[in-house]
Design brief:
The protein is of the alpha/beta class. It has 2 domains: 293 residues, TIM Barrel, CATH 3.20.20; 81 residues, Golgi alpha-mannosidase II (Immunoglobulin-like). It contains 12 helices and 18 strands. Bound molecules: alpha-D-galactopyranose (GLA). The site of alpha-D-galactopyranose has 9 residues, from loops.
């Protein structure tokens, strides 16, 4: 090979090598897990909070349980500099995002950030429309691993939304770094149908979760059961790399949250929080805690760190639970798992205790099984073709049914 041919081949190979990025549809083989600033802290965020939360994620055992990302939501921005580079609020993040990302990475965690497909974010701060390539390069240079991309202040129609999300996904792809794109258009433009095509990895299914069971004041707040109901019909769109983002876990907020306490968000019972964890795991939603990780009660830890329910969420088959039964009092869901077993959830939506039966053959799982209760952490039946038992109001019982 002559010298110039050798050099150009080497150059080509090295550029191919350095620009080699994970294909976008392989960025999130399992639902992302982590912690998000918004629902408790809203704009009261700064680098100290993020560092302390990173420490708490490690020390509290959350990282080892699978929680990996710290997502900085809206109100981190400080505008643009003279070269139009987006900059963080210097009072909140005096040492800049790169130093913060380095710290988060040093803990074995990843860092997410937030922007919006318009000129202003939902909170009214600097967003990325028209600056997608520049902002994506900036995020990459900071070491950002995930972008939540919102859709406030943008046109209603689906074609524009697709175009704007595709533009940002392409910019992230060109940035030289693997950055996940979380699409946040609240399920208003059937995003589940086009998320993958435009380069996104997850799609919000609902308006913002409020810290409540159900929207009884009819002000447009979404409670836990409301989000279950809007997400259940979307199960067929769920697959590895395409996740239904049911918004943040409100476990541990107890009515003390910022935005999650609006619109009737008075707080939930522990039974209802356990149902949220159960159903978000059954339906393969990303798990984004939003409580104060520096002080988590034992009962919240029991819910958030249950390895058996997390294993269902993270199952590599990547299917969402299908709703097999729905009536005025209860719902039954079945999720197939990679090892051939099934997760079965019985959700009491009524206000009274119920005795429910899960007849496995009727649910499409014929045969005799061992039935494991993932909240009681024990096998409750062997060689069984059904499970029958009590389910308290707003409780979800979850079982793994296996040979
Ligand atoms: C929208 C999103 C929320 C949050 C806020 C921030 O409402 O749906 O999750 O990101 O914007 O302003």
């Amino acid at each position: 090979m002559n010298k110039s041919l050798f050099l150009s081949t080497a150059l080509l190979l090295s550029s191919l090598f350095t620009s080699a990025q994970t294909p976008r549809n392989q960025l999130t083989p399992r639902p992302p897990m982590g912690w998000m600033t918004w629902n408790l802290f809203q704009g009261n965020i700064n680098e100290q909070l993020i560092r302390e939360t990173a420490d708490a994620m490690v020390e509290g055992g959350f990282r080892d349980a699978g929680y990996e990302y710290i997502f900085i939501d809206d109100l981190w921005q400080g505008g643009r500099d003279r070269q139009n580079n987006i900059i963080p609020d210097p009072e909140k993040f005096p040492n800049g995002m790169k130093a913060l990302a380095d710290y988060v990475h040093s803990k074995g965690l990843k860092l997410g950030i937030y922007s919006d497909a318009a000129q202003l974010t939902c909170g009214g701060w600097t967003a990325s429309l028209g600056f997608e390539e520049q902002d994506a390069r900036t995020f990459a240079s900071w070491g950002i691993d995930y972008l939540k991309y919102d859709y406030c202040n943008a046109p209603e129609d689906s074609a524009t939304a697709r175009h704007r999300y595709r533009t940002m996904a392409n910019a992230l792809q060109n940035s030289g770094r693997d950055i996940v794109l979380g699409i946040c258009e609240w399920g208003q433009r059937q995003c589940e149908e086009w998320c993958e095509e435009v380069g996104g990895q997850l799609w919000r299914t609902s308006y913002d979760v409020r810290d409540m069971w159900k929207d009884i004041v009819k002000e447009g707040g979404m409670g836990i059961i409301d989000i279950v109901n809007v997400t259940a019909p979307l199960a067929k769109y769920v697959r590895p790399g395409q996740w239904p983002d049911m918004d943040m876990l409100v476990v541990g907020l107890n009515g003390t949250g910022g935005p999650s306490s609006d619109l009737g968000g008075v707080g939930c019972t522990q039974t209802e929080y356990q149902t949220q964890m159960s159903m978000w795991c059954m339906m393969a939603s990303p798990l984004a805690m939003t409580n104060d990780l520096r002080k988590v009660s034992e009962d919240d830890r029991r819910i958030l760190l249950n390895p058996e329910i997390i294993a269902i969420n993270q199952d590599v088959l990547g299917k969402a639970a299908e709703r097999k039964v729905m009536n005025d009092n209860y719902q039954i869901f079945v999720r197939p798992l990679a090892d051939g077993s099934h997760a079965v959830a019985l959700l009491n939506t009524s206000e009274k205790p119920l005795t429910l039966t899960a007849d496995f053959a009727v649910l499409g799982i014929s045969g005799k099984y061992t039935v494991r209760d993932v909240w009681q952490h024990k096998d409750v039946a062997r060689n069984a073709s059904k499970w029958k038992g009590h389910v308290m109001p707003h409780e979800t019982r979850v079982f793994v049914v296996k040979k």
